[in-house]
Amino acid sequence: MDGSGGERIARKGREQIERIRQAGRVVHDVLELLAGAAVPGVSTAELDELARRRTLELGAQPAFLGYRGYPASLCVSVNEQVIHGIPSPARRLRDGDLVGLDYGVILAGWYADAARTVAVGRASARAARLRDATRRALAAGLAAVRPGARVGDVGAAVQACAQAAGYSVVREFVGHGIGRRLHEPPQVPNHGPAGTGPVLAEGMVLAVEPMLTAGGPAVRTLDDGWTAVTLDGSLSAHFEHTVAVTKKGPEILTLPEGVPFTP
């Protein structure tokens, strides 16, 4: 989910970052499960229930359920849906669908949040290119997360990678700080300019989450009040990780420790 800002940016100690990492392990486990379950014929409501059950088994709580009135545990966005797609028993996945899976949990009072886009069955070359470019854009944004950099440097890196591949960046939704709350300062836009915005410092924890489209960047929200879709009906993809700012570089907390994020 996208975030908001305006308050002081919290810096976490190592013990606090480890708490977020523990929540991140649950998020990773659930997303791995969902990626394997996103097959032709399954409903998006079934994916939501699978995510909720697995989260509870692991001792955590879904972070999105009831947040600002959101009615489900999982955001599942299909094809032209950019973000915040509400699961439904009537929406069954079809071969070739491009599906964004956005998930967060609360574990012992700490939040973690991540997203990935997967292809159902056989992805078209067009869909696979967009998915892979969005993943590369996230990798570029994560690489810019370091002490002394600015938030605008992260967005500029995402934007440059996306536009070099021929894709548009959605601007209405942004990444965010995360920790004791799902959305903490700062907002982390997916566009530049570089050299602007708050300075990043060791101990800050961010959720970086580019959303790219195969057409224009404009979106609209459906009558359900949540689901955002591309205005031109083009495909969209979304990737996200929770990352800590450290002296050694970005430390991804929603991957198993020591496992690199490869574009």
**CATH top level label:** Alpha Beta
Integer tally of domains? 1
Strand order of the biggest β-sheet? 8-7-9-14-15
Q: What's the CATH H-level homologous superfamily?
A: Creatinase/methionine aminopeptidase superfamily
Show the helix and strand layout:
Layout: H1 14-37, H2 44-57, E1 61-62, E2 75-78, E3 81-83, E4 98-107, E5 110-119, H3 125-143, H4 151-164, E6 168-169, E7 175-177, E8 184-188, E9 205-208, E10 211-213, E11 219-221, E12 228-230, E13 236-238, E14 241-246, E15 249-252
Antiparallel strand pairs: 1-4, 2-4, 3-12, 4-5, 6-10, 7-8, 7-9, 9-14, 10-13, 11-12, 14-15
Helix pairs in contact: 1-2, 3-4
Can you offer a commentary on this structure?
This protein has 263 residues and is an alpha+beta fold. It contains four helices and 15 strands. The strands form four sheets. The chain has a five-stranded antiparallel sheet with strand order 8-7-9-14-15. The protein has helices spanning 14-37, 44-57, 125-143, 151-164; strands at 61-62, 75-78, 81-83, 98-107, 110-119, 168-169, 175-177, 184-188, 205-208, 211-213, 219-221, 228-230, 236-238, 241-246, 249-252.
Brief descriptors of the model:
263 residues, Creatine Amidinohydrolase, 4-stranded antiparallel sheet
Task: Characterize this entry briefly.
The chain is an alpha+beta fold and 263 residues long.
